[in-house]
Amino acid sequence: MQTYSHSTLACREAQLIEFARCGATDELVEYVYDRLPARARKLAAMFLETCGARLDVDDVRQAGAEMVLRRLGKALGADNPVAYLLHAAQFAMLAYCKEQRSPIRVPCSTQCHTGVRPPMVLSLDAPLVAGEDLTLLDLIPADG
User: Fold this and answer.
1) Which tens digit of pLDDT belongs to each residue from 85-112?
2) Three-state secondary-structure class, residue 110
3) φ, ψ (nearest 5 deg) of residue 30
4) What residue ranges do the domains of the chain occupy?
5) CA–CA distance, 60 with 26 (Å, rounded to integer)
6) The dihedral sign for the CA sequence 99, 113, 77, 13
C-alpha cells in the first residue's frame, strides 16, 4: 500500500481533475472508486449492527460506483470534483442500504419524504431466544 502526504494527494487529485476535464475520465473514476470499499464496509457493518441487515459490501460499493458514473459530468463543473463524487457515492450507498435492510422493500425516497419505514420482519422458524428451540411458529395456535 502506498502512502502519500497530503500535498502529494492534492497534486495527484488536481492532475486527475485536469485530465478528466480534458476528456480522460478513466483515472479519476478509478481514483474515486478505490476509495469506496472502506465506506461501503462501514455502512454494511452499521446496518448489520443497528438493523440486523446482512448487506453485501460489493453491492453497496456498486451502488456508489454507479452514482459516480452518473454524476461525473456534473462533478467536473464543481470546485472539488473528487469530494463531490465521494459525497454523491456516499449518499447513494446509504440509500441502497436503507432500501435493502428489510425483505419488504420501501424505496429510500419514500422513507425520507413520507416517513414510511419498512415493517419489521421476524422469521417463523428462527429461535426467539438464542440457544433455545422455541420459535414464533410454536406460539401460533394450530387450527384443528
Assistant:
1) 999 999 999 989 888 876 665 565 555 5
2) helix
3) -65, -40
4) 6-101, 106-144
5) 21
6) negative
As given in the structure block, the three cell numbers for residue 57 are 459490501
- The Cα–Cα gap between 78 and 55 comes to 32
Over residues 47-60, the pLDDT tens digits come to: 888 877 889 999 99
Confidence of residue 65 (pLDDT cuts 50, 70, 90): very high
**CA separation for the pair 144, 135 (Å, rounded):** 20
Tell me the sheet residues that pair with 60: none
Rounded to whole angstroms, how far apart are CA atoms 15 and 35? 17
User: What DSSP string runs through 52-103?
Assistant: -----HHHHHHHHHHHHHHHHHHHTTSS-HHHHHHHHHHHHHHHHHHHHSSS
Residue with cell 487529485: 13
Name the packing angle between helices 81-100 and 26-33 (round to 10°).
50
